[in-house]
Amino acid sequence: MRARQAPILAELAGVGMSWDAYHLTAGHTDGRGARQAICAALDSAGLSARDVDYINMHGTATPRNDSVETRVIKSAFGEHAHAVPVSSIQSMIGHSIDGSGALDAGCSVKALNENKIPATVNLDEPDPLCDPDYVPHRFRQAHLEVVLSSSYAFGGQNCVPVLERLRPERKTWQARAHDAAERGSANSKES
Question: What is the domain extent for residue 94?
Answer without folding.
Answer: 11-190
